[in-house]
Design goal:
Elements lengths: L1 H36 L8 E2 L2 E2 L3 E3 L5 E4 L4 E2 L3 H6 L1 H4 L10 H4 L1 H5 L1 E2 L3 E2 L4 E5 L3 H11 L4 E7 L5 E7 L24 H4 L9 H11 L8 E3 L2 E4 L2 E4 L5 E3 L1 H6 L3 H11 L1 H10 L7 E2 L2 E2 L13 H7 L9 H12 L10 E6 L4 E3 L12 H19 L9 E10 L2 E11 L6 E7 L5 H18 L1
Parallel strand pairs: 3-8
Antiparallel strand pairs: 1-2, 3-4, 4-5, 6-7, 8-17, 9-10, 9-21, 11-14, 12-13, 15-16, 17-18, 19-20, 20-21
Length: 448
Amino acid sequence: MKLVKQRTLMILLLVLALLVGTVIYCARYMTQGSDWAAFPSNQHAFTDGSIASGQILDRNGTLLFDAASGAYAEDGTVRKATLHAVGDPDGNIATGARSAFLSDLVGWNAITGTTGSGHKLYLTVDAALNQLAYQELGSRKGTVAVYNYETGEILCMVSTPTFDPENIPDIRDGDTAYEGVYMNRFLSSTFTPGSVFKVVTTAAAIDNLPDVFDRTFTCTGRITIGDDTITCPHAHGTMNFYDAFANSCNCAYAQLAVEMGGDTLAQYANTAGLLDSQNISGITTAAGSFDVGEAGSPQLGWSGVGQYDDLINPCSFMTLMGAIGNDGIPVTPRIIKKETTMAGLPVSNPGKDTGSRIWSQKTCETVKEMMANNVAEVYGQSNFGDLKLCAKSGTAEVGTASPHSWFAGFLDDTEHPYAFVVLVENGGGGATVAGSIASRVLQAAVAK
Ligand SMILES: [Zn+2]
């Protein structure tokens, strides 16, 4: 009798262990199944380690990559212009869709596992707009991006240098023509912002210096702070706050930065979202940094005009531009428009992701007015067609090399709520070089 009891107990324990094991397996299958399916040894979805199922398309259905054939877009310029969005055959561009969204392409689901042909992944980008932005950048290194600041959809995202994934060049270490070619500069790089950072200093001054609009600033072209001299390209003369922003006067802004202090500026850079990384449809962007010098130091003055050790990520800055256009509420950019089966049945349709308010609505309205004034007074509306443009240029000094050229802003236009950023590495003057690229890409975006 005792033996029977022992055996029954043993069997019960074995059954219990089996049940626990099954539950653990099922839970892991549900949570990690898509990762298992996306493992390159899965012969249903991969051939020789390369993905063999699924397609990547642009927002209008233009085919950008077909995994079964390994073919990219038909047009060679589109292939180069969408390389960083789509990804390369060797998987060197980790933020490209074919690497970052592998499990979506494989088309795994808990009921059927991997279906034979995978899924269609529609990106938010417009291939023709990317093509135009790429042609505008030409042989220069940099990035151009445009997004809808109400929906979060990225319409244009180009990074250069690039290459044709169907004719991969021989890229050797140290080849300056292909410096950082596997990095999407928009998502994964940080750069000295130069004068585009004055947008942050402006918001801080509006909130913290109640008389700032009653002040006059006199620029002689140079100002001494501590043991350093901060300079402007020429003497801007006597100005009000609007003109100091439009002229991008370093002397005026360095003084404002020193007066407000590093903690205040760092707080505004932080609420602007410039110090955090973002989650773009699951891709983590690079975080920026703001290094304040000591109180009253020339370094603090340089920080306030976007020089010294300040670094920003282009995607974060574009989101800040969108937030100002959206009355202070940032909408996180996203790159996946929708996912369907190969037959077109909907699988997922991601919604928008809204962040917390950056600055007060009133402050954003004032900054918006000042950015519109920049276009009217300095950049010239005639250079931007009928665009309802609010913008700030930047010419960021980077040692002895030619400065980086920035132009960023948004359209104050309910039908075309687009924010943008253009960066040309060592491009020269911001408003002329990056500004003209922005003008042509935005006019094409609005015409669509
Ligand atoms: Zn000045």
